[in-house]
């Protein structure tokens, strides 16, 4: 079993090229199934200091640009950069506007100059970064003194119902791996940024059946991308086994899918 207590997870998280390709393919379908992403992003926006008004912001892992447009509306007159590793997402977002610039880039090596942003906003993107130390270092470098890095990510416990159900079927890796919340706490505390707030909250969605959940994950581009995943098509017997195992979790509202969300607001010292 992979040690998820490690600060960084080389070999346990998917290759960046696979992440970029998967989310590029999902660009057209993403918004139709992004209920959780919308909810988490809205909550993250609400966690920023009330009197904070950035002149220049970065939407890190902008996806289809939904929150680039939200930032543009919330901070009229500001200038924004929408950045994503997936070209397909940028191609989808660019015609919809919201940001001043749309840039292909990596959160671990930001293509931006030092001390150029008042705000870095990142909702459900940095969980795909194997080297989170570098993400924090780059945020510190790019932020102006007094600037804010607000991010939402996923941690261990996310989709545990699906993970445990597959484990009963074949014991193989079918669900993406994520860091422990404690690791986020350690890395943020050890960074050069001040921790304003850091919290882990569970979001639970419900589905009528397993197929609805797996279809949504594929439409989001967030289906299983990790090393060790089984190759080829999944046989009918294993699918039926998955359905039977997952039914043990059924609630009155349907089949639950739990997402453990990390909310963080960090500040660069003056």
Automatic annotation (TrEMBL):
UniProtKB keywords: Biotin biosynthesis, Methyltransferase, S-adenosyl-L-methionine, Transferase
Presence of the UniProt keyword Calcium in the record: no
Domain Methyltransferase type: 58-151
UniProt entry tagged with the keyword Methyltransferase: yes
One GO process term, biological-process aspect: methylation
Family matches, as InterPro entries: BioC, Malonyl-ACP_OMT, Methyltransf_11, SAM-dependent_MTases_sf
One Pfam family it belongs to: Methyltransf_11
Function description: Converts the free carboxyl group of a malonyl-thioester to its methyl ester by transfer of a methyl group from S-adenosyl-L-methionine (SAM). It allows to synthesize pimeloyl-ACP via the fatty acid synthetic pathway.
Name used for this protein in its record: Malonyl-[acyl-carrier protein] O-methyltransferase
Gene coding for it: bioC
């Amino acid at each position: 079993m992979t040690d998820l207590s490690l600060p960084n997870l080389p070999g346990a998280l998917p290759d960046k090229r696979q992440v970029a390709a998967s989310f590029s393919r999902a660009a057209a379908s993403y918004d139709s199934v992004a209920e959780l992403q919308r909810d988490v992003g809205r909550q993250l926006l609400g966690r920023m200091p009330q009197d904070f008004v950035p002149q220049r912001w970065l939407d890190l892992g902008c996806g289809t640009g939904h929150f680039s447009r939200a930032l543009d509306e919330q901070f009229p007159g500001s200038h924004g950069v929408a950045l994503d590793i997936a070209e397909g997402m940028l191609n989808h977002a660019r015609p919809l506007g919201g940001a001043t610039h749309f840039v292909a880039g990596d959160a671990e090596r930001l293509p931006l100059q030092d001390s150029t942003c008042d705000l870095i906003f990142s909702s459900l993107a940095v969980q795909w970064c194997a080297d989170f130390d570098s993400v924090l270092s780059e945020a510190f470098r790019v932020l102006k003194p007094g600037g804010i890095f607000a991010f939402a990510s996923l941690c261990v416990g996310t989709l545990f119902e699906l993970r445990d159900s597959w484990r009963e079927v074949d014991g193989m890796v079918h669900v993406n791996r994520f860091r422990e919340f404690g690791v986020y706490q350690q890395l943020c505390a050890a960074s050069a940024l001040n921790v304003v707030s850091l919290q882990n909250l569970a979001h639970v969605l419900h589905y009528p059946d397993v197929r609805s959940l797996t279809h949504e994950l594929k439409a989001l581009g967030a289906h299983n991308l990790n090393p060790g995943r089984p190759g080829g098509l999944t046989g009918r017997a294993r699918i039926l086994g998955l359905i039977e195992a997952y039914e043990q979790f059924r609630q009155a509202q349907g089949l639950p899918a739990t997402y453990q969300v990390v909310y963080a607001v960090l500040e660069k010292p003056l």
